[in-house]
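F.,

This is the one I mentioned.
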């Protein structure tokens, strides 16, 4: 494996650890009031984002989760796009689509019909007058939407894969052109264009729907302001993948890896700028100018956060480590199953006299170990191996 490919594989492992940590901390945010624990069947359905809300809080988790919320999902779409072009050229259009349907569509359907209802049951029990399974199923089926949990990522990623396959079929030269444009002689110019396109994709929707609103009906969960932004980063990843990851921006000797400290400074500065401007919009009515400024700062923080984590991985994480190798190989399965363990462990710790940091550490450690064991076990079952997307012979051991 080349150094760039190894660094990006290790980044995949780092990202899944961050995802598990992010969800493990959500029950202990200071920003979320206890009053958010409303009836399961009544708006605003806060349990979709915070299934368990604990009385014990730690403000440091607010800072960490705010940063991850700004850039993490955009980075996941970017990384998913990086390897589209090699797969598309190898499998061709219909083969690529068939593979994506099995890889993303089948786990999404299984997840939202089986895994997510099991994961959300503790959120129902917290406020339910009748905590029985039958009463929960009645309440679940009566909801005006079908909760996707964190698996909304799968259907949006599948939709983007369908779009890129359609583009390749109708106009094969488009992705080639995107690849050539993604190998710029002057990265600053590319970055400015990426910011401009991201702003056009995000700001109008954020102004129209606010940055926080999710759909309250239908089968597919969507945060109204972000799908186009995620599409921008997905196609940015497709472009870099088409240009070649061994040269240019995402190579171990490229501009990101060489200037990782600058990207760290830019990511932190833009994060605090976004937090300050967003705070102004949340402390009473704000002018449209302040809202637009906050939305523009979000776009900047999102891009710099993505490129910072990529830069750090390309600069520092270019060696084989068994732990990271196994995490990377099992990252997709961990993403599919971890939410169940997170919510049930948070629920089990309700009422215990432990500091929030200790609770979150228990939830994170337990989720990582139990999810890892579950994935390794499921991959030894033919249906499970197909569901997670890896043949049994490819199982990575920790």
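My design for it:
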């Amino acid at each position: 494996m080349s150094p760039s490919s190894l660094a990006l594989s290790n980044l995949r492992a780092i990202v899944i650890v961050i995802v598990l940590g992010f969800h493990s901390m959500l029950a202990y945010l200071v920003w979320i009031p206890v009053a958010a624990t409303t009836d399961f069947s009544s708006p605003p359905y806060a349990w979709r984002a915070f299934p368990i809300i604990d009385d014990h809080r730690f403000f440091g988790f607010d800072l960490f989760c705010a940063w991850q919320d700004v850039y993490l999902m955009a980075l996941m779409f970017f990384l998913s796009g990086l390897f589209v072009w090699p797969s598309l050229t190898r499998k061709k259009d219909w083969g690529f689509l068939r593979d994506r349907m099995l890889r993303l569509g089948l786990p999404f359907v299984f997840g939202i019909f089986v895994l997510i209802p099991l994961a959300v049951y503790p959120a129902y029990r917290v406020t339910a007058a009748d905590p029985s399974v039958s009463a929960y199923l009645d309440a679940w089926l009566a909801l005006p939407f079908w909760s996707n949990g964190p698996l909304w990522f799968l259907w949006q990623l599948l939709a983007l894969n369908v779009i890129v396959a359609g583009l390749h079929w109708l106009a094969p030269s488009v992705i080639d052109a995107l690849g050539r444009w993604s190998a710029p002689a002057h990265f600053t110019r590319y970055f400015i264009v990426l910011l401009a396109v991201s702003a056009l994709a995000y700001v109008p929707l954020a102004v129209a729907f606010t940055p926080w609103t999710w759909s309250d009906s239908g089968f597919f969960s969507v945060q109204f302001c972000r799908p186009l932004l995620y599409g921008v980063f997905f196609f940015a990843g497709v472009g870099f993948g088409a240009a070649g990851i061994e040269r240019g921006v995402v190579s171990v000797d490229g501009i990101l890896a060489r200037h990782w400290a600058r990207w760290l400074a830019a990511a932190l500065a833009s994060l605090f700028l976004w937090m300050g401007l967003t705070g102004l919009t949340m402390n009473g009515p704000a002018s449209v100018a302040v809202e637009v400024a906050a939305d523009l700062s979000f776009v900047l923080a999102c891009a710099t956060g993505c490129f910072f984590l990529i830069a750090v991985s390309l600069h520092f994480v270019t060696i084989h480590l068994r732990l990271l190798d196994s995490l990377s190989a099992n990252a997709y399965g961990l993403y599919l199953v971890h939410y169940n363990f997170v919510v049930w462990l948070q629920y089990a710790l309700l009422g215990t006299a432990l500091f929030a940091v200790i609770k979150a550490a228990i939830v994170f450690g337990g989720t990582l170990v139990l999810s890892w064991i579950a994935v390794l076990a499921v991959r030894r079952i033919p249906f499970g191996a197909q569901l997670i997307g890896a043949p049994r012979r490819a199982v990575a051991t920790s």
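The chain has one domain: 3-394.

Talk soon.
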